[in-house]
């Protein structure tokens, strides 16, 4: 099924007939978000309506604070994930000062009055200063509103904040569990300084744009290139041994030696291995990378064996 992406300005309207609309920022499209969209998927089949998701192109809160935003999922990532939930349209609201001036009632009048069913999480807010609550949506006569209760894991709400905290701590397993898939960064392969090649471990350097980077260190990863997965070990960091101050994202890809400059690849994080360290000599660093590689090979064997058991 093809999914259509439509960008909306503050003066646009949504006029699609017989539409179920899921509301939220959906950063991460984690398990709680998926539960919300799955409800829409069920209703779509029952009523033969179209299913759409409304998201925003940036964090409204950070936009108002004039701060940069580092996302868990890009718009393209969201679209890719939502295809699996039979979503027909992904509406992307362009955040602007004109948009955030809408009162909650004005937001409904401008964007929501033509839909049939609205689905939102119980903590969803909208309109000027986030004054609009789901209680207002439920009172609206234009459409039916369905509110999805929050999901918790070990007593903590499943949400983007929790996932971000896990990534900052390097707890990839927890973040991946809450996401329902490995945390992924997509980016274009760019020219690096050739340090990895000099060390005997040539790496693909990735332009990670505005993605949230996990804790600095070395990871066991899977790199997807042109739809094919390869095992890899990935470094997120500043390469302290070489006095580099710029954070880079680079992957040593196992059993791969093709030229991929300018290719868009996807790095899926599986396990945090260790922090970055400063090494007195290059030989000491090479020895550590060799040890990292041996550990990753053990993890690959374990992963493959578990897959065979299943």
- The string of secondary-structure elements, in order, is EEHEHHEHHEHEEEHHEHEEEEEH
The number of distinct β-strands equals: 14
What is the name of the CATH superfamily of the largest domain?
Answer: HUPs
Report the average pLDDT across residues.
Answer: 94
Q: Decide which structural class fits the backbone.
A: alpha/beta
Overall description:
With 310 residues, the protein is α/β, with parallel strands linked by helices. The chain folds into 2 domains: 4-156, HUPs (Rossmann fold), CATH 3.40.50.620; 183-309, Riboflavin kinase-like (Elongation Factor Tu (Ef-tu), domain 3, Beta Barrel). It has helices at 31-47, 60-64, 75-82, 97-100, 104-112, 134-139, 160-169, 172-179, 195-199, 282-309, and strands spanning 4-8, 19-23, 50-56, 89-93, 117-121, 144-148, 152-153, 156-157, 183-190, 204-207, 217-225, 228-237, 248-253, 264-274. α7 (160-169) runs antiparallel to α8. The protein is elongated and about 70 Å long. The mean pLDDT is 94.
């Amino acid at each position: 099924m093809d999914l259509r992406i439509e960008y909306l300005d503050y003066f646009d309207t949504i006029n699609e007939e017989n539409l179920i609309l899921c509301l939220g920022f959906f950063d991460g499209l984690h398990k709680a978000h998926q539960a919300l969209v799955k409800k829409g998927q069920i209703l779509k089949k029952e009523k033969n309506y179209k299913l759409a998701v409304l998201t925003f192109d940036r964090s409204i809160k950070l936009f108002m604070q004039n701060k940069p935003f580092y996302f868990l999922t890009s718009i393209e990532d969201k679209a890719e994930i939502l295809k699996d939930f039979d979503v027909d349209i992904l509406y992307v609201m362009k955040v602007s000062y004109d948009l955030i001036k809408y009162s909650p009632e004005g937001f409904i009048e401008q964007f929501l009055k033509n839909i049939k069913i609205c689905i939102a999480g119980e903590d969803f807010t909208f309109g000027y200063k986030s004054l609009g609550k789901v209680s207002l949506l439920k009172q609206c006569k234009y459409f039916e509103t369905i509110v999805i209760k929050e999901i918790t894991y070990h007593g903590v709400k499943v949400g983007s904040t929790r996932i971000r905290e896990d990534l900052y701590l390097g707890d990839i397993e927890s973040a991946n569990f809450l996401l329902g898939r490995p945390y992924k960064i997509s980016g274009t392969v760019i020219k690096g300084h050739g340090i990895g090649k000099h060390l005997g471990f040539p790496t693909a350097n990735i332009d990670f744009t505005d993605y949230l980077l996990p804790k600095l260190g070395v990871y066991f990863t899977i790199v997807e290139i042109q739809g094919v997965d390869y095992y890899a070990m990935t470094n997120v960091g500043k390469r302290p041994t070489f006095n580099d101050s710029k954070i880079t994202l680079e992957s040593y890809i196992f059993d791969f030696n093709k030229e991929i400059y300018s290719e868009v690849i996807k790095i899926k994080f599986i396990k945090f291995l260790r922090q970055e360290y400063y090494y007195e000599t290059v030989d000491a660093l090479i020895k550590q990378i060799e040890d990292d590689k041996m550990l990753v090979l053990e993890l690959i064997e374990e992963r493959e064996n578990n897959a065979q058991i299943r």
